[in-house]
Design a protein that fits this description.
The protein has helices spanning 18-34, 48-58, 84-90, 100-105, 110-122, 135-139, 143-154, 182-200, 202-207, 218-225, 242-250, and strands at residues 6-11, 40-45, 63-67, 94-97, 126-131, 164-168, 209-213, 232-235. By secondary structure, it is an alpha/beta fold. It is globular, with a radius of gyration of 17 Å. Bound molecules: 1,3-dihydroxyacetonephosphate. It catalyses: D-glyceraldehyde 3-phosphate = dihydroxyacetone phosphate; L-erythrulose 1-phosphate = D-erythrulose 4-phosphate.
């Protein structure tokens, strides 16, 4: 019997202007007020430009707000970057670090991701640490080793089941409509948990949440969320529609 409460997290990526962000946040808050509560925690991660607005709109509700990235340093000469403590100050409880789009677009290494996750923890937030293999790596039979090694390199010092969430996002499934099969997802999630046992011990590993991300939609969520080591979802495209996001939450 697992005691892990599932987390359904929307990663809005670089989408939306003020009106879109407000409508989406208010739409989810309305659902929380009017529909039976889903059996999971709910989180939205708007682009940095909308974090303050969304945090204000969800204030007092059960919908948490997170950032999509933070800098490893607490402050200083880093033009265009956002400090973890600044996100926390706006009302963020979580921050995503090491998303594959940042690893690719900004050449973020495991060491950078680890430092960012440590900054998130220092700011009192929960770090959502993303890992995942490319299609070429999967085809080469390297899936498990790549995920193990990214996890080892990216996990922050001081990590525990309360301050850290892992997100397994196979790069080939992100934004492609090509979702991992339940067997593929469970295999990697179980390997991630086994690696967490090595690093953090069985008790912490047994309580740490591991999310699946990559083309999770209302029509495939139930099957994925029922897997023994899948503790929620990190959702891109489907998180931009209230009805889809809510339907996924209801699948928990
Ligand atoms: O990258 C993702 C979430 O972080 C997944 O995106 P999609 O759900 O659009 O595939």
């Amino acid at each position: 019997m697992t005691t892990r409460r599932k987390l359904i997290a929307g990663n809005w990526k670089m989408n939306g202007l003020k009106a879109d962000g407000l409508a989406l946040a208010r739409g989810i808050v309305d659902k929380l007020k009017t529909a039976p509560a889903p059996a999971c925690d709910l989180l939205v991660c708007p682009p940095t430009s909308l974090v303050a607005l969304v945090a204000e709109a969800v204030g007092g509700s059960a919908l948490a707000v997170g950032g999509q990235d933070c800098h490893a340093k607490a402050s200083g000469a880093h033009t265009g970057d956002t400090a973890a403590v600044a996100l926390a100050d706006l009302g963020c409880a979580y921050v995503i670090v090491g998303h594959s789009e940042r690893r690719t677009d900004h050449a973020e290494t495991d060491a950078v991701v680890k430092a960012k996750a440590e900054a998130a923890l220092a700011a009192g937030m929960i770090a959502i640490v993303c890992i995942g293999e490319t299609l070429a790596q999967r085809d080469a039979g390297q899936t498990i080793e790549i995920n193990r090694s990214q996890l080892r390199g990216s996990l922050p010092e001081g990590s525990n089941a309360t301050n850290t969430v892992i997100a397994y996002e196979p790069v080939w499934a992100i934004g492609t409509g090509r979702v991992a099969t339940p067997a593929q997802a469970q295999e990697v999630h179980a390997a991630i948990r086994a690696e967490l046992v090595q690093k953090l011990g069985a008790d912490t590993a047994g309580r740490m949440r591991i999310l699946y991300g990559g083309s999770m939609k209302p029509d495939n969520a139930k099957e994925l969320l029922a897997l023994p080591d899948v503790d929620g979802g990190l959702i891109g495209g489907a998180a931009l529609k209230v009805a889809d996001f809510w339907a996924i939450a209801e699948s928990c």
